[in-house]
Amino acid sequence: MSMETPDDFAAPPDEGVNRNLNGQKLGRKGRDTRARIIAAANALVSQDSDIPVTLSAVARKSGLGMTSLYLYFNDLTELLLAVLEPVMEEAEAYLKLIRLRWPDEELADHCRAFAAAYYAFWQENSRILHLRNSLADQNDQRMLQQCVSGAEALIGPLVEQMNGNLQHPQSPNFALAVMLVTGIERAASIRTDIALPGLLVDRMILAPDRFLHPAARLLELGIRDARAGFGSNQPSLPLPPTPLRYSSTPLI
After folding, report:
1. Into how many domains does the chain fold?
2. What is the 3-state secondary structure (H, E, C) of the chain?
3. pLDDT digits (tens, 9 = 90+) for 209-252
4. Residue 220 shares a structural domain with residue 101
5. Are 123 and 206 members of one domain?
6. pLDDT, tens digit, for every residue of 125-142?
7. Does residue 248 sit within a domain?
């Protein structure tokens, strides 16, 4: 096993943070240290290893003491949210596709392009995204909010693709958009779950196109139905007596 040095985790300094948690203004060294911590956390999340992602593990990997980490991050969630910031910027690759109006005659092609871009995003960032979802399932409120924000960024443009009104979140179009986004994310999550193949008898279930084409087709059908006004006059179903909790456990 190769030995890693702190320099292996050097990263461009984060110019957006000006002070540490003690309120001290960050100079070049402070920004470099913060960036080193984030880079080490990212490396730890990304590696093929059973090493748990903890602050102490990040400290060891970055070659820094715990005192240094607590100068910049209150806890692990805060650090992982910093790791997620540039990751979520990559979401622009699929968001920019759905923000453009998809003509009816080209809808199938646009849905396939969007699904491919969304799945590529998950494939590239699967480890941190799975960790995010796992923490959200454990009722980590900050990670849960991060998940919600990511979904909302997609739900809004999808509602507009359906000719829906963003000012009416109780509308059938909004509900349909939520269901489609939930299903597409679940499919991407299952497709990129590194532990799942060992639990399946049929390994071909995780073939690259297993969920990609059906997801694109469901997206196309949902948009077409919404544009045609299907369900616009349907009454809302009553809510169950107990709110259902989302779980990241794949249901196959």
Report:
1. 2
2. CCCCCHHHHCCCCCCCCCECCCCCECCHHHHHHHHHHHHHHHHHHHCCCCCCCCHHHHHHHHCCCHHHHHHHCCCHHHHHHHHHHHHHHCCHHHHHHHHCCCCHHHHHHHHHHHHHHHHHHHHHCHHHHHHHHHHHHCCCHHHHHHHHHHHHHHHHHHHHHCCCCCCCCCCHHHHHHHHHHHHHHHHHHHHCCCCHHHHCCCHHHHCCCCCHHHHHHHHHHHHHHHHCCCCCCCCCCCCCCCCCCCCCCCCC
3. 677 889 999 999 999 999 998 755 554 444 444 443 434 433 33
4. yes
5. yes
6. 999 999 999 999 999 999
7. no
